[in-house]
């Protein structure tokens, strides 16, 4: 199983970035996909989650950390096995390494990408 993030970089406050996480080796539709981030000296925190696309009652439901609600949007393309994080109105406190996570809780399966750096600075 591989999860590969891309799209990070340096952006000014108020700017936007779109992160991508391309997956392989798993049945993408059956996994809940999430973005986490970890800033220097801080614990890893959940940014956004999208439920699996397996046709259950929770299909594609989303949740966001309070700090990013209204600014970030998670989406998935099940034809490309890819999850995205659109980040708008970025703030310096959004600076962190962003990690992609694929989880199938019923089977105890949990996979992580290598992370991509996002730096918000003028």
Low-confidence spans: pLDDT under 50, at least 5 residues?
none
Spell the H/E element sequence: EEEEEEEEEEE
Q: What share of residues are in beta strands? A: over 45%
The first-to-last residue Cα distance is 37 Å
Mean pLDDT, nearest integer?
Answer: 95
So what's the overall shape?
globular
How many beta-strand runs? Answer: 11
**What class do helices, strands and sheet pairing give?**
mainly beta
Q: How would you concisely characterize the structure shown here?
A:
The chain contains no helices and eleven strands. It is mainly beta. Strand 9 and strand 10 form a beta hairpin.
Keywords:
single chain; 122 residues; mainly beta; 7-stranded mixed β-sheet; 4-stranded antiparallel β-sheet; 11 strands; 0% helix; 51% strand
Question: If you had to describe this structure to a student in words, what would you say it looks like?
Answer:
- A hairpin with a 4-residue loop joins strand 9 (96-104) and strand 10.
- This protein has no helices and 11 strands.
- The model has no long low-confidence stretch (mean pLDDT 95).
- Helices cover 0% and strands 51% of the residues.
- With 122 residues, the protein is mainly beta.
- Strands 2, 4, 5, 6, 9, 10 and 11 form a 7-stranded mixed β-sheet that branches. It has a 4-stranded antiparallel β-sheet with strand order 1-3-8-7, with no helix packed on it.
Write the layout of secondary structure elements.
Elements: E1 2-6, E2 9-11, E3 17-24, E4 32-38, E5 45-50, E6 62-64, E7 72-77, E8 82-87, E9 96-104, E10 109-112, E11 116-120
Parallel strand pairs: 2-11
Antiparallel strand pairs: 1-3, 3-8, 4-5, 4-9, 5-6, 7-8, 9-10, 9-11
């Amino acid at each position: 199983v591989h999860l590969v993030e891309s799209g990070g970089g340096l952006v000014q406050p108020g700017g936007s970035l779109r992160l991508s996480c391309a997956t392989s080796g798993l049945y993408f539709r059956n996994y809940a996909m999430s973005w986490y981030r970890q800033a220097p000296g801080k614990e890893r925190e959940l940014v956004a989650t999208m439920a699996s696309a397996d046709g259950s009652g929770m299909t594609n439901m989303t949740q966001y950390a309070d700090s990013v609600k209204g600014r970030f949007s998670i989406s998935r393309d099940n034809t490309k096995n890819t999850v995205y994080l659109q980040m708008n109105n970025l703030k310096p406190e959004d600076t962190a390494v962003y990690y992609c996570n694929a989880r199938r809780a019923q089977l105890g399966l949990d996979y992580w990408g290598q992370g991509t750096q996002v730096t918000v600075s003028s």
